[in-house]
Automatic annotation (TrEMBL):
One of its GO terms (biological process) is ribosome biogenesis. The gene is der. This is GTPase Der. It comes from Nocardioides silvaticus. Associates with the 50S ribosomal subunit. SMART domains: AAA. Keywords: GTP-binding, Nucleotide-binding, Repeat, Ribosome biogenesis. GTP 2 binds at residues 182-189, 229-233, 294-297. GTP 1 binds at residues 8-15, 55-59, 117-120. Belongs to the TRAFAC class TrmE-Era-EngA-EngB-Septin-like GTPase superfamily. EngA (Der) GTPase family.
Length: 432
């Protein structure tokens, strides 16, 4: 899915505009200084086309002045996104900070759509046209608050976003997209270096692939893989000097761009809150998942005992993910990574025929009916798998199902059909 980054000074209305684009008020909170927002990317859709919106507004690096801060945001935006939506306050006009951003955006060569916000009525529209001076093309007057002009703006955004691949890479025959994620120092770059080693693929040699400069093509097990946003793994200098938010932003977008994530954990350290947070992001994204416990050379019997407890406690929701133990530094067991990834992608793309699914559901209901609730017993009437990647099911029922019963269905689905390495989505449609 293509990525759109939203950039602009504070108070120009970025968050309001993002909410407007999403068509719901859900997500974006106003910028609160010093508060790190968890969500940085959002799934959006316009005219049937899906794209991801990244709000750079929450990134508050330790940069000195406002202009530098915004410039830093713009740099991230152009390094991560396919296109940038640059938001200017039309009632204020162009500021020095805006000029800085323009330089970065123009240098990047990536498409930019210019939104002139706070054009609440026709009268202010004239002010928007002053923004032609920025040299970024046509300014789109909008009122993020009232919705005025947002349709035209979104049309312009779609026009510059690359067409998303209609199917997964498998069907396209291109390299599978893998994201290596994990908190700092767990050994991500060591792993990537070991994997890539001397086998790094020269981009030009792969016919018909356009590769984002932040990605890396690596030959593994006789096939080419695309490791997404390896710049985020390799270029650690900036990350170290910047805000934690920067790392988080990169992680989120890498997950979005991947088909399968390899979560690297440090085997000798306790599973931390940050690990769980990344895990949560992977789950929400619906990507396939492999968990690699690295630094296994440092794991002794005692640590192993505690690790098993931690796995039970913290990884219970991803019990389905293949786990491998590796030592990235020496390369020990990293040959197990590709089979694990293959297994996860296979689960991710599994499709169950409607016939097989319903005969399974029939058996399940017969063996273990839903408990009676206030005199009624909800029944699963019919199910169908509506999509893969991840496997997504719709169940038509005669009433609402208990959360526990939904979990039971998922567990049985996994027992029956595998689904290793993939989340499963079950949408229940009660016919009341
Ligand atoms: P990243 O921040 O996740 O990319 O982590 P790095 O790859 O930079 O590794 C952080 C530190 O852990 C470095 O000092 C590595 O040499 C060390 N390291 C990485 N993998 C292993 C491993 O398998 N065993 C041991 N003992 N150290 C490792």
């Amino acid at each position: 899915v293509p990525v759109l980054a939203v950039v602009g000074r504070p108070n120009v209305g970025k968050s309001t505009l993002v909410n407007r684009i999403l068509g719901r008020r859900e997500a974006v909170v106003e910028d609160i200084p010093g508060v790190t927002r968890d969500r940085v990317s959002y799934d959006a859709e316009w005219n049937g086309r899906a794209f991801t919106v990244v709000d750079t507004g929450g990134w508050d690096p330790d940069a000195r002045g406002l202009a530098e801060r915004i410039a830093a945001q713009a740099e991230i935006a152009v390094s991560l996104a396919d296109a940038t939506l640059f938001v200017v306050d039309a009632t204020v006009g162009i500021t020095d900070a805006d000029e800085e951003v323009v330089k970065i955006l123009r240098k990047s060569g990536k498409p930019v759509v210019l939104a002139a916000n706070k054009v609440d009525d026709e009268r202010t529209e004239a002010e928007a046209y002053g923004l032609w001076n920025l040299g970024l093309g046509e300014p789109y007057p909008v009122s993020a608050l009232h919705g005025r002009g947002s349709g035209d703006l979104l049309d312009a955004v779609l026009a510059v976003l690359p067409e998303p691949p209609p199917v997964t890479e498998k069907e396209l025959g291109g390299p599978r997209r893998v994201a290596i994620v994990g908190r700092p120092n767990v050994g991500k770059s060591s792993l990537l270096n070991k994997l890539a080693g001397e086998e790094r693929v020269v981009v030009d040699n792969v016919a018909g692939t356009t590769v984002d400069p932040v990605d890396e093509l690596v030959e593994l097990g006789g096939r080419t893989w695309r490791f997404v946003d390896t710049a985020g793994i390799r270029k650690r200098v900036k990350e170290a000097s910047g805000h934690e938010y920067y790392a988080w932003l990169r992680t989120s977008t890498a997950i979005e761009r991947s088909e399968v994530c390899v979560l690297v954990l440090d085997g000798q350290e306790s599973i931390a809150e940050q690990d769980v947070r990344i895990l949560q992001a992977v789950r929400e994204s619906g990507r396939a998942l492999v968990i690699a416990f690295n630094k296994w050379d440092l794991v002794d019997e005692e640590r192993r005992y505690y690790l098993d407890r931690e796995i039970e406690r913290d990884l219970v929701q991803v019990q389905w993910a293949p786990r491998i133990n590796i030592t990235a530094r020496t390369g020990w067991h990293i040959d197990r990574l590709v089979p694990a990834i293959d297994k996860a992608l296979e689960g991710w793309e599994t499709r169950i025929s409607t016939g097989a699914l319903n005969s399974f559901l029939g058996r399940l209901v017969a063996e273990h009916p839903h408990p009676v609730r206030s005199g009624k017993q909800p029944k699963v009437l019919f199910g169908t798998q509506v999509s893969t990647a991840p496997p997504t099911f719709v169940l038509f029922t005669s009433g609402k199902l208990d959360a526990g019963y939904e979990r039971y269905i998922e567990r049985r689905l996994r027992e029956e059909f595998g689904f290793v390495g993939t989340p499963i989505v079950i949408n229940v449609k009660p016919r009341e």
